[in-house]
Design goal:
This protein is mainly β. The protein folds into two domains: about 220 residues, Aromatic compound dioxygenase (Protocatechuate 3,4-Dioxygenase, subunit A, Sandwich); about 40 residues, no CATH class. The chain has one helix and 14 strands. Strands 1, 4, 7, 8 and 9 form a five-stranded mixed sheet that branches. Strand 5 and strand 6 form a beta hairpin. The longest helix is centred in the N-terminal third of the chain and has 13 residues. The structure holds fe (ii) ion. Fe (ii) ion binds next to strand 5. Belongs to the intradiol ring-cleavage dioxygenase family.
Length: about 290
């Protein structure tokens, strides 16, 4: 049953607070996100959010995405877990079935450490309200945990959480890198009217969100306070791809793909997560390190 106690909780590790009025010390990224939150991007009414990462260079080529943790941000802001967390959630990255009511939502991104290297094996435990704004406190509906991939990536398939009294729309998540402490936070949606009145809302935790057919696609990159050796080259290109672009054609051996490119293979859509040249044997379903099924 929805209760408003989360709205009276206090975030932790947020420095000057969690409200929308704390933009004076936040980064360019957060400013862009805050602008979206204030209505520059009318989420949920059909128009996609304009993302800086989607800009194109002269000639139409997409700009190389910038890892978000190169944008001047410190570790991801922490927030209260609220009253509805339950341990022992199921291992799964989809919280829905075909019959689940609600607007479909996918959230993808990466987990980075302090040197902007991806962190594999991070436990991400998500929980959220259902389409009616209610949490399942007797079972495990809309609760699930997963581990970041070898590339530090995560992917959540769910619905847009419903609203409940005292809060703006949000997702809850706990993250724990191997051997590290648990980090608890929440993710927010741009364009939500209640973002301006929810005392817990923090623009630094806004996802990039855009319309994708009848559903929404969001991205967010977490940064954990995990020491990393900056002199060791990353083994994979770390930037999160922008929200999905429509498939651009059938997968073709010999073709060079960039992160974010879309293809179809055997009637299934995939998104390239790591730049490479396609070769026979690296068909999208065979190499999850290169292709994410959509
Ligand atoms: Fe909540």
């Amino acid at each position: 049953m929805p209760v408003p106690e989360e709205s009276t909780g206090t975030g932790t590790g947020n420095g000057n607070g969690t409200g929308a009025g704390t933009e004076h010390r936040v980064s360019r990224k957060a400013v862009l996100r805050a602008a979206a939150a204030l209505g520059a991007a009318p989420l949920l009414i059909g128009a996609p959010v304009a993302l800086a990462r989607e800009r194109t260079a002269p000639g139409g080529a997409p700009l190389v995405p910038t890892p978000e943790c190169h944008d001047g941000d410190g570790p991801t802001v922490e927030q209260t877990e609220g009253p509805y967390f339950k341990p022992d959630s199921p291992l799964r990255n989809s919280l829905i079935t075909s019959g689940t009511p609600g607007t479909r939502l996918t959230v993808t991104g990466y987990v980075f450490g302090r040197a902007c290297r991806p962190v594999p094996g991070v436990l991400l435990d998500f929980w959220q309200a259902d389409d009616n704004g209610a949490y399942d406190n007797s079972g495990y509906a809309f609760r699930g945990h997963q581990f970041s991939t070898a590339q530090g990536a995560f992917s959540l398939t769910t619905i847009v959480p419903g609203l409940y009294p005292g809060r703006t729309r949000h997702l809850h998540v706990k993250l724990q890198a191997p051997g590290r402490r648990v980090v608890t936070t929440q993710l927010y949606f741009p364009g939500e009217p209640r973002n301006g009145t929810d005392s817990l809302f923090d623009g630094r935790l806004l996802m990039n969100v855009r319309q994708a057919g009848p559903g929404l696609e969001g991205t967010f990159d977490f940064v954990l306070d995990v020491a990393q050796d900056p002199t060791t080259p990353p083994t994979t290109p770390p930037p999160t791809t922008p929200p999905t672009t429509p498939p651009t054609g059938a997968w073709t051996p010999g073709r060079a793909y960039r992160a974010g490119d879309g293809v179809t293979y055997a009637g299934v859509a995939y998104r390239c997560v790591q730049a490479h040249t396609a070769v026979t044997g690296w068909e999208p379903p065979n190499v999850p390190a290169l292709w994410q099924r959509l």
